[in-house]
Amino acid sequence: MKTIICAILMAFSLGLRAQESNNCKEVMLETTAGNIKLKLYNETPLHRDNFLKLVNLHVYDSLLFHRVIKDFMIQCGDPKSKDAKPGDFLGEGDLDWTVEQELRLPQIYHRRGVLAAAREPDSDNPYRESSACHFYLAWGKTFTDAELDKMQQRLDTIYGYRVKITPEMRETYKTIGGIPHLDGGYTVFGEITEGLDVLEKIQQTATDENDRPLEDVRILKATVIEHKPATVNKKPAARRRPATKAGSQSAQRKPSGTRAR
Fold this sequence. Notes:
Order of helices and strands: HEEHEEEEEEHHEHE
Strand order of the largest sheet: 3-4-8-6-9-2-1-10
Number of strands: 10
Mean pLDDT: 86
Distance between the termini: 43 Å
Structural class: alpha+beta
Helix content: 10-25%
Strand content: 15-25%
Low-confidence stretches: 1-20, 242-261
Largest sheet: 8 strands, antiparallel
Protein backbone atom coordinates (compact mmCIF):
# COMPACT_ATOMS: atom_id res chain seq x y z
CA MET A 1 0.00 0.00 0.00
CA LYS A 2 2.80 2.43 0.91
CA THR A 3 4.49 1.70 -2.41
CA ILE A 4 1.28 2.47 -4.30
CA ILE A 5 0.76 5.72 -2.38
CA CYS A 6 4.35 6.83 -3.05
CA ALA A 7 3.96 6.07 -6.74
CA ILE A 8 0.73 8.09 -6.90
CA LEU A 9 2.33 11.04 -5.12
CA MET A 10 5.35 10.91 -7.43
CA ALA A 11 3.14 10.84 -10.51
CA PHE A 12 1.11 13.74 -9.14
CA SER A 13 4.28 15.74 -8.46
CA LEU A 14 5.63 15.09 -11.96
CA GLY A 15 2.29 16.11 -13.41
CA LEU A 16 2.38 19.41 -11.55
CA ARG A 17 5.94 20.07 -12.77
CA ALA A 18 4.95 19.35 -16.35
CA GLN A 19 1.92 21.62 -16.03
CA GLU A 20 4.07 24.40 -14.56
CA SER A 21 6.58 24.02 -17.40
CA ASN A 22 3.76 24.22 -19.96
CA ASN A 23 2.51 27.43 -18.32
CA CYS A 24 5.83 29.27 -18.68
CA LYS A 25 5.61 32.66 -20.35
CA GLU A 26 7.44 33.05 -23.66
CA VAL A 27 8.93 36.04 -25.43
CA MET A 28 10.03 36.43 -29.03
CA LEU A 29 13.01 38.65 -29.84
CA GLU A 30 13.03 39.65 -33.50
CA THR A 31 16.59 40.78 -34.19
CA THR A 32 18.56 41.89 -37.22
CA ALA A 33 20.40 38.55 -36.99
CA GLY A 34 17.29 36.36 -36.70
CA ASN A 35 14.61 35.43 -34.19
CA ILE A 36 15.23 34.17 -30.65
CA LYS A 37 12.43 32.56 -28.64
CA LEU A 38 12.74 32.70 -24.85
CA LYS A 39 11.03 30.76 -22.09
CA LEU A 40 10.84 32.57 -18.73
CA TYR A 41 11.16 30.48 -15.57
CA ASN A 42 8.33 30.48 -13.05
CA GLU A 43 10.94 29.77 -10.36
CA THR A 44 12.17 33.37 -10.69
CA PRO A 45 8.89 35.34 -10.60
CA LEU A 46 10.39 38.77 -9.83
CA HIS A 47 12.64 38.69 -12.89
CA ARG A 48 9.96 37.03 -15.03
CA ASP A 49 7.36 39.69 -14.25
CA ASN A 50 9.84 42.54 -14.61
CA PHE A 51 10.96 41.29 -18.03
CA LEU A 52 7.36 40.83 -19.21
CA LYS A 53 6.50 44.36 -18.08
CA LEU A 54 9.40 45.82 -20.05
CA VAL A 55 8.52 43.80 -23.14
CA ASN A 56 4.89 44.94 -22.98
CA LEU A 57 6.07 48.55 -22.63
CA HIS A 58 8.24 48.05 -25.75
CA VAL A 59 11.38 49.03 -23.83
CA TYR A 60 13.54 46.58 -25.79
CA ASP A 61 12.28 47.54 -29.24
CA SER A 62 15.18 48.98 -31.30
CA LEU A 63 17.82 48.45 -28.57
CA LEU A 64 21.29 47.24 -29.53
CA PHE A 65 23.23 44.26 -28.28
CA HIS A 66 25.83 46.73 -27.09
CA ARG A 67 28.28 44.28 -25.48
CA VAL A 68 29.33 41.08 -27.25
CA ILE A 69 32.19 38.83 -26.15
CA LYS A 70 33.04 35.71 -28.13
CA ASP A 71 32.76 32.44 -26.22
CA PHE A 72 31.11 34.33 -23.35
CA MET A 73 27.80 36.16 -23.86
CA ILE A 74 25.82 38.90 -25.62
CA GLN A 75 24.27 41.75 -23.61
CA CYS A 76 21.38 44.12 -24.26
CA GLY A 77 19.29 46.61 -22.29
CA ASP A 78 20.89 50.05 -22.41
CA PRO A 79 18.04 52.48 -23.19
CA LYS A 80 20.57 54.90 -24.66
CA SER A 81 21.54 52.40 -27.35
CA LYS A 82 18.33 53.01 -29.31
CA ASP A 83 19.68 56.21 -30.84
CA ALA A 84 23.41 55.60 -30.35
CA LYS A 85 25.82 56.76 -33.01
CA PRO A 86 28.64 54.51 -34.29
CA GLY A 87 31.46 54.38 -31.78
CA ASP A 88 29.41 55.69 -28.82
CA PHE A 89 30.31 54.05 -25.51
CA LEU A 90 27.29 52.14 -24.20
CA GLY A 91 26.33 50.17 -21.11
CA GLU A 92 25.75 52.83 -18.46
CA GLY A 93 22.12 53.61 -19.25
CA ASP A 94 19.51 51.95 -17.01
CA LEU A 95 16.10 52.39 -15.42
CA ASP A 96 15.58 53.64 -11.87
CA TRP A 97 15.00 50.38 -10.00
CA THR A 98 16.66 47.05 -9.31
CA VAL A 99 15.36 43.49 -8.94
CA GLU A 100 16.11 41.34 -5.90
CA GLN A 101 18.46 38.45 -6.64
CA GLU A 102 16.74 35.09 -7.23
CA LEU A 103 19.30 32.28 -7.21
CA ARG A 104 17.90 28.81 -7.84
CA LEU A 105 21.02 26.67 -7.72
CA PRO A 106 21.68 23.89 -8.46
CA GLN A 107 18.57 23.46 -10.63
CA ILE A 108 19.09 26.68 -12.63
CA TYR A 109 22.61 27.68 -13.62
CA HIS A 110 24.68 29.25 -16.40
CA ARG A 111 24.52 26.56 -19.05
CA ARG A 112 24.70 27.60 -22.69
CA GLY A 113 21.58 29.36 -23.95
CA VAL A 114 20.19 30.72 -20.68
CA LEU A 115 18.82 34.22 -20.12
CA ALA A 116 20.24 36.10 -17.12
CA ALA A 117 20.19 39.56 -15.57
CA ALA A 118 23.23 41.83 -15.61
CA ARG A 119 24.01 44.03 -12.61
CA GLU A 120 26.43 46.49 -11.05
CA PRO A 121 29.62 45.06 -9.46
CA ASP A 122 29.73 43.91 -5.84
CA SER A 123 31.61 47.03 -4.75
CA ASP A 124 28.57 49.18 -5.61
CA ASN A 125 25.95 46.47 -5.19
CA PRO A 126 26.64 44.27 -2.13
CA TYR A 127 23.25 42.52 -2.32
CA ARG A 128 23.88 41.64 -5.98
CA GLU A 129 20.53 43.04 -7.12
CA SER A 130 19.84 42.85 -10.84
CA SER A 131 19.59 45.73 -13.27
CA ALA A 132 16.06 46.73 -14.17
CA CYS A 133 16.57 46.20 -17.89
CA HIS A 134 20.03 44.83 -18.77
CA PHE A 135 20.10 41.13 -19.66
CA TYR A 136 22.50 38.73 -21.33
CA LEU A 137 22.30 35.45 -23.21
CA ALA A 138 24.99 32.99 -22.18
CA TRP A 139 27.19 31.15 -24.67
CA GLY A 140 30.42 30.27 -22.84
CA LYS A 141 32.61 27.27 -23.61
CA THR A 142 33.08 23.65 -22.61
CA PHE A 143 35.36 22.74 -19.70
CA THR A 144 37.49 19.83 -18.60
CA ASP A 145 37.28 18.25 -15.16
CA ALA A 146 40.54 19.91 -14.19
CA GLU A 147 39.23 23.33 -15.25
CA LEU A 148 36.01 22.79 -13.31
CA ASP A 149 38.00 21.78 -10.22
CA LYS A 150 39.81 25.12 -10.39
CA MET A 151 36.50 26.86 -10.98
CA GLN A 152 35.09 25.26 -7.84
CA GLN A 153 38.03 26.58 -5.83
CA ARG A 154 37.35 30.05 -7.20
CA LEU A 155 33.65 29.83 -6.28
CA ASP A 156 34.56 28.60 -2.78
CA THR A 157 36.78 31.65 -2.31
CA ILE A 158 34.14 34.11 -3.52
CA TYR A 159 31.02 32.62 -1.94
CA GLY A 160 32.34 30.75 1.07
CA TYR A 161 31.54 27.21 -0.10
CA ARG A 162 27.87 28.06 -0.72
CA VAL A 163 28.00 27.43 -4.48
CA LYS A 164 28.77 23.87 -5.54
CA ILE A 165 29.18 22.47 -9.04
CA THR A 166 27.05 19.33 -8.84
CA PRO A 167 27.69 16.22 -10.96
CA GLU A 168 24.81 17.22 -13.25
CA MET A 169 26.18 20.75 -13.67
CA ARG A 170 29.67 19.36 -14.27
CA GLU A 171 28.44 17.09 -17.04
CA THR A 172 26.58 19.97 -18.69
CA TYR A 173 29.61 22.25 -18.58
CA LYS A 174 31.78 19.48 -20.05
CA THR A 175 29.43 18.58 -22.91
CA ILE A 176 27.17 21.56 -23.68
CA GLY A 177 29.11 24.45 -22.24
CA GLY A 178 28.31 27.58 -20.30
CA ILE A 179 29.70 30.13 -17.85
CA PRO A 180 30.20 28.43 -14.46
CA HIS A 181 32.11 31.28 -12.85
CA LEU A 182 28.92 33.40 -12.92
CA ASP A 183 26.95 30.88 -10.86
CA GLY A 184 26.01 32.33 -7.50
CA GLY A 185 26.50 35.91 -8.60
CA TYR A 186 23.87 36.54 -11.26
CA THR A 187 20.22 35.54 -11.59
CA VAL A 188 19.32 33.16 -14.42
CA PHE A 189 15.62 33.52 -15.23
CA GLY A 190 14.98 31.92 -18.61
CA GLU A 191 16.38 30.07 -21.60
CA ILE A 192 16.42 30.03 -25.37
CA THR A 193 14.04 27.45 -26.84
CA GLU A 194 14.50 28.48 -30.48
CA GLY A 195 17.28 30.48 -32.11
CA LEU A 196 20.41 29.19 -30.40
CA ASP A 197 22.08 29.46 -33.80
CA VAL A 198 21.29 33.18 -33.79
CA LEU A 199 23.05 33.56 -30.44
CA GLU A 200 26.03 31.65 -31.84
CA LYS A 201 26.18 33.97 -34.84
CA ILE A 202 25.93 37.17 -32.78
CA GLN A 203 28.61 36.13 -30.28
CA GLN A 204 31.06 35.76 -33.16
CA THR A 205 30.50 39.34 -34.32
CA ALA A 206 33.57 41.56 -34.69
CA THR A 207 33.69 44.23 -31.96
CA ASP A 208 35.63 47.37 -30.98
CA GLU A 209 37.76 47.87 -27.87
CA ASN A 210 34.59 48.34 -25.76
CA ASP A 211 33.08 45.04 -26.98
CA ARG A 212 30.47 46.86 -29.05
CA PRO A 213 29.80 45.21 -32.42
CA LEU A 214 31.29 47.10 -35.36
CA GLU A 215 28.04 46.50 -37.21
CA ASP A 216 24.94 47.13 -35.11
CA VAL A 217 22.96 44.08 -33.99
CA ARG A 218 19.55 45.26 -32.89
CA ILE A 219 16.34 43.93 -31.36
CA LEU A 220 13.74 45.09 -33.85
CA LYS A 221 10.80 44.01 -31.71
CA ALA A 222 10.19 42.06 -28.51
CA THR A 223 6.75 40.55 -27.93
CA VAL A 224 5.09 38.28 -25.40
CA ILE A 225 3.83 35.15 -27.12
CA GLU A 226 0.15 34.65 -26.38
CA HIS A 227 -1.06 31.05 -26.35
CA LYS A 228 -4.75 30.66 -27.03
CA PRO A 229 -6.42 27.86 -25.07
CA ALA A 230 -7.15 24.82 -27.17
CA THR A 231 -10.79 24.47 -28.18
CA VAL A 232 -12.48 21.18 -27.48
CA ASN A 233 -15.37 20.01 -29.63
CA LYS A 234 -17.84 18.63 -27.15
CA LYS A 235 -20.19 15.90 -28.21
CA PRO A 236 -23.78 17.15 -28.07
CA ALA A 237 -25.88 15.50 -25.41
CA ALA A 238 -28.23 12.90 -26.79
CA ARG A 239 -31.89 13.90 -26.66
CA ARG A 240 -34.49 11.44 -25.67
CA ARG A 241 -36.51 10.34 -28.67
CA PRO A 242 -40.17 9.42 -28.57
CA ALA A 243 -40.84 5.83 -27.84
CA THR A 244 -41.07 3.65 -30.98
CA LYS A 245 -42.31 0.21 -31.72
CA ALA A 246 -39.94 -2.67 -31.15
CA GLY A 247 -37.82 -3.37 -34.21
CA SER A 248 -38.35 0.08 -35.67
CA GLN A 249 -35.34 1.28 -37.71
CA SER A 250 -35.49 4.77 -36.26
CA ALA A 251 -34.75 3.39 -32.80
CA GLN A 252 -31.31 2.24 -34.05
CA ARG A 253 -30.16 5.64 -35.38
CA LYS A 254 -27.88 8.08 -33.55
CA PRO A 255 -29.03 11.65 -32.99
CA SER A 256 -27.86 13.97 -35.79
CA GLY A 257 -24.72 16.02 -35.31
CA THR A 258 -22.79 13.49 -33.20
CA ARG A 259 -20.44 12.28 -35.89
CA ALA A 260 -16.77 12.83 -35.04
CA ARG A 261 -15.05 15.36 -37.29
